[in-house]
Amino acid sequence: MNKNTDRVVLAYSGGLDTSVAIGWIAEQTGREVVTVSVDVGQGGEDLDVIRQRALDCGAVEAYIADARDEFATDYCMPALKANALYEGAYPLVSALSRPVIAKHLVRAAREFGASTVAHGCTGKGNDQVRFEVAITSMAPDMDCLSPVRDLALTRDVAIEYAEKHSLPIETTKHNPFSIDQNAWGRAVETGFLEDLWNAPTKDVYTYTDDPTYPPLPDEVIITFKEGLPVAIDGAAVTPLQAIQELNRRGGAQGIGRIDMVEDRLVGIKSREIYEAPGAVILIEAHRALEAVTLERLQRRYKRQIEQTWGELVYEAQWYSPLKRSLDAFIEDTQHYVSGDIRMVLHGGRATVNGRRSESGLYDFNLATYDSGDTFDQSSSRGFIEIYGMQPKLAAARAERLGEGEGF
Ligand code: ARG
């Protein structure tokens, strides 16, 4: 077999497990390993440092991609337009990053002649499903491999392997948590958080400061154009800049901390702590603008679509036909979602206190109780007459049949 068409592409974070996986996969499968590291705004180590480590650990090629803007624009912004919160609370931080990482994995697999894509996820979580379903949705010919799940690469084995082969990676630093972070937010699990009664300690958080001791209130004006944030306090921003700035300002006020028990796709209930200040602020603001600009029935129906959209994305269906169809619906609703939302960020909350839109459906003269009222109140009489017709008929029937409630 031609070695060059039989390589394995590995999603590489630079951490212990995936560093060991490079050599482990090569040994177990007899194939060359190409690593792929994608910047989705997770911060931390420089990608060039990570790239060099991959090569030092035995990768034949190490591909890196700065996908921060792509992630913000093509993955986070659709989630914002969908006001996406899984089980009413989780802004889909990890669920959104997997499809963009998968896209770069597939791209690298094509470029470097690989027929298998590997990742560092365990066999218990959602992310294995998201990576593999995303990969085969884009490239039905690809094979997927999880060294932890499929090649018995446990934590202890990894530490032993790294020490034996003197890999350039720390094996002693014990992080009590499993953390996944990107521009949209941060997810923390395991360790003492697995006892649902244990409150998170201070060291769990890095994107947010303690909301109990907030600095002075911070007022922010977010300008939206067709559902997208385009300016903050009058200064033009890209989607990535909008998220970053609101992460910073919201984080300082302790906004966007979420402590929840969620239902994983694989059936397990798990406890996770999230921090997503920018996402929470943007969704709150976007919803407030939709309240002004969307027609009532469209808005009501969109709420159902939003819930399904969030579930699909959580459940690994980013590249699925239904998700695409729902995107088209959501996109259509955003045409008039333009205007300004003013919020006060303080003490862990983002509170909307002003809205302004040229494309809204709010009509001051219809709404006002002062002079200038253009609403013809006399027409409400006939409206109520017809609107209440069937409940009235039902009540009359009940009385006729002696089944009335006796009011
Ligand atoms: N539970 C979240 C999800 O399935 C986050 C998964 C990754 N979390 C982590 N702490 N490593 O989307």
From TrEMBL:
<dbReference type="GO" id="GO:0000053">
    <property type="term" value="P:argininosuccinate metabolic process"/>
</dbReference>
<feature type="binding site">
    <location>
        <position position="122"/>
    </location>
    <ligand>
        <name>L-aspartate</name>
    </ligand>
</feature>
<feature type="binding site">
    <location>
        <position position="126"/>
    </location>
    <ligand>
        <name>L-citrulline</name>
    </ligand>
</feature>
<feature type="binding site">
    <location>
        <position position="90"/>
    </location>
    <ligand>
        <name>L-citrulline</name>
    </ligand>
</feature>
<dbReference type="InterPro" id="IPR048267">
    <property type="entry name" value="Arginosuc_syn_N"/>
</dbReference>
<dbReference type="InterPro" id="IPR048268">
    <property type="entry name" value="Arginosuc_syn_C"/>
</dbReference>
<feature type="binding site">
    <location>
        <position position="127"/>
    </location>
    <ligand>
        <name>L-aspartate</name>
    </ligand>
</feature>
<feature type="binding site">
    <location>
        <begin position="11"/>
        <end position="19"/>
    </location>
    <ligand>
        <name>ATP</name>
    </ligand>
</feature>
<dbReference type="GO" id="GO:0005524">
    <property type="term" value="F:ATP binding"/>
</dbReference>
<keyword id="KW-0055">Arginine biosynthesis</keyword>
<dbReference type="Pfam" id="PF20979">
    <property type="entry name" value="Arginosuc_syn_C"/>
</dbReference>
<feature type="binding site">
    <location>
        <position position="120"/>
    </location>
    <ligand>
        <name>ATP</name>
    </ligand>
</feature>
<feature type="domain" description="Arginosuccinate synthase C-terminal">
    <location>
        <begin position="177"/>
        <end position="393"/>
    </location>
</feature>
<dbReference type="InterPro" id="IPR023434">
    <property type="entry name" value="Arginosuc_synth_type_1_subfam"/>
</dbReference>
<dbReference type="InterPro" id="IPR001518">
    <property type="entry name" value="Arginosuc_synth"/>
</dbReference>
<keyword id="KW-0067">ATP-binding</keyword>
<protein>
    <recommendedName>
        <fullName>Argininosuccinate synthase</fullName>
        <ecNumber>6.3.4.5</ecNumber>
    </recommendedName>
</protein>
<dbReference type="GO" id="GO:0005737">
    <property type="term" value="C:cytoplasm"/>
</dbReference>
<feature type="binding site">
    <location>
        <position position="262"/>
    </location>
    <ligand>
        <name>L-citrulline</name>
    </ligand>
</feature>
<comment type="subunit">
    <text>Homotetramer.</text>
</comment>
<comment type="similarity">
    <text>Belongs to the argininosuccinate synthase family. Type 1 subfamily.</text>
</comment>
<feature type="binding site">
    <location>
        <position position="126"/>
    </location>
    <ligand>
        <name>L-aspartate</name>
    </ligand>
</feature>
<keyword id="KW-0028">Amino-acid biosynthesis</keyword>
<feature type="binding site">
    <location>
        <position position="178"/>
    </location>
    <ligand>
        <name>L-citrulline</name>
    </ligand>
</feature>
<feature type="binding site">
    <location>
        <position position="130"/>
    </location>
    <ligand>
        <name>L-citrulline</name>
    </ligand>
</feature>
<dbReference type="InterPro" id="IPR024074">
    <property type="entry name" value="AS_cat/multimer_dom_body"/>
</dbReference>
<feature type="binding site">
    <location>
        <position position="274"/>
    </location>
    <ligand>
        <name>L-citrulline</name>
    </ligand>
</feature>
<dbReference type="InterPro" id="IPR014729">
    <property type="entry name" value="Rossmann-like_a/b/a_fold"/>
</dbReference>
<keyword id="KW-0547">Nucleotide-binding</keyword>
<comment type="pathway">
    <text>Amino-acid biosynthesis; L-arginine biosynthesis; L-arginine from L-ornithine and carbamoyl phosphate: step 2/3.</text>
</comment>
<keyword id="KW-0436">Ligase</keyword>
<dbReference type="GO" id="GO:0000050">
    <property type="term" value="P:urea cycle"/>
</dbReference>
<dbReference type="Pfam" id="PF00764">
    <property type="entry name" value="Arginosuc_synth"/>
</dbReference>
<feature type="domain" description="Arginosuccinate synthase-like N-terminal">
    <location>
        <begin position="7"/>
        <end position="168"/>
    </location>
</feature>
<dbReference type="GO" id="GO:0006526">
    <property type="term" value="P:L-arginine biosynthetic process"/>
</dbReference>
<dbReference type="InterPro" id="IPR018223">
    <property type="entry name" value="Arginosuc_synth_CS"/>
</dbReference>
<keyword id="KW-0963">Cytoplasm</keyword>
<dbReference type="GO" id="GO:0004055">
    <property type="term" value="F:argininosuccinate synthase activity"/>
</dbReference>
